[in-house]
Amino acid sequence: MSKRILFFSNQGLSPLHLSIELEVLASLRENPENEIISMTCDATLPGCFFNPTKNVLACALCESRTQNYRKLIGKIDKEPLTGNKSSDEKCPEIKSLNELENFTYKDINIGRGIASSLISITRDFDVHHAKHRKKLEALFNIAVVAFESLSKAITKHRPEVIYFFNGRFTETHVLKELCIKKGIDFFTFEVATKGKYLVFENALPHSMKLRKKLIHDMWTSTEESKRLTTAREFYEKKRIGTFKARFNHTKKQERDNLPEDWDASKKNIVFFNSSEDEMKTIEDWKQDIFSSQNEAIQTIVTQYTEKTNIQFHLRVHPNLGQVENSQIKEIENFNYNNLKVIGPNEKTDSYALVSQADIVICFGSTIGIESTYWGTPSIMFGRSFYEDLDATYTPSSYDELYELIDNKALQPKPQENTLPYGYYVSSFGTPFKYVKYNGKTETFFNDVRIKKWHLNLIPYIVRYSKNISTWKSLTRTFTNKSLKPRHITKLLNQIPK
To answer: What is the pLDDT of residue 319?
Structure first.
């Protein structure tokens, strides 16, 4: 069945993300009756999540590379965004994250997307702090222009379906909300396991409901020996650091290294926290028990200050090693006799902690279900895609959590319950048909390598040079520094060849 499709493309800076856009577009193009309109930013937006400073060279790279490789698909109608922010639209004063998440513009929520971008850019969820005010204003401008531009495009083309990347950031969150308001089906796409991508219908890639269904469907539809072998390989390779993932957070840790003052005579309970930026504003991940991981940790530790036989440890996630935000600053000020903090850059082996701990408490990260696999009682206090597998204890209140901690006979959940998640993490996604991805510098579409430089880059640089003053201003907004040559060279080093 043919459809009238609007495809919003804004991923030209990343070869992997661009290749996924091209893959999805090429798949849609397989039906010659589909009417596809591909819409690019063309530097119309006042910035985006991947280029918040409106770096002129980045805009030129994004647009030129997108247009260059789009030609390999065949004829697809294309046009740029058009639209402007009304001069009288001012960013409101925001007093809390909750207030920002619920902020609307012309009857659609734009605040949640702004919050998501701001938290991920700053790695800080203290969004109402004065130091973030100008960033908030800049993201508000992006949201309003995105609303006006995309509303205009939807009115003009009257699409039956809209496709876009991810959907949680300022500019694409607006598009998701417009789809919901206007009753238009939408599809979001994202990176999956290596060599694969993921497409979700009428949901974000972070959807609890759809991810849980995916875990179940993958497990029940796969031959038993294959799924068991793949699942076990995931946990074992993850432990020794050979599982091929986008990030290896344990590569700087020393195998079997425990803190020197580890006291095995006590009941040792290890918290594994995580950075809260990606899922902080996702509605599916909301829970009512605590407002932050730090709050939960302090509440639990305080409950046990009089029980000297219990020692808590906090393993700060390595992903927070280069971050200075409210989460890290609070941790640095923790002062509890029964809590020892293991910094994100310390060489202590996370898996040695798992093996020696009496109980592990996590907030949704994979280490929670890994702990069960390795035979340690694991409590997941929060939300996770694996929460329904009965692979961890999932208390719904502090009182339920305290009962688990106080249970002297607490046993780990059955290892077999962890296997569906292990298989899912190793295998989820749709295999590429047109793309070959061998790393960010070796990405091919239709057997053509996605390069950094093309001759069509130059006219875009010339055309976008009118935005240099904006680039200067936003660089100061987002970096607190004036624009310098190193901002250009830094971009050049970051963009794969």
So the answer is: 85
Tell me how far apart the alpha carbons of residues 227 and 223 are, in angstroms, rounded to a whole number. 6
Question: What pLDDT digit, counting tens, does each position of 407-434 carry?
Answer: 999 999 999 999 999 999 999 999 999 9
In the numeric block, the tokens 């425990």 are attached to 258
Closest CA to 128 of 331, 329, 326, 332: 326
Bridge partners, residue 8, by sequence: 39
Both tokens assigned to 285: 């991940």
CB atoms within 10 A of CB 80: 13
**pLDDT tens per residue, range 149-162:** 999 999 999 999 99
Alpha helices in 221-268 (DSSP H): 224-240
* Banded model confidence at residue 326, pLDDT cuts 50, 70, 90: confident
With b for 16 or more beta-carbon neighbours within 10 A and e for fewer, the 167-180 pattern comes to: bbbbbbbbbbbbbe
**CA–CA distances in Å: residue 440 to residues 278, 375, 416:** 22, 37, 35
Q: What is the pLDDT of residue 497?
A: 43
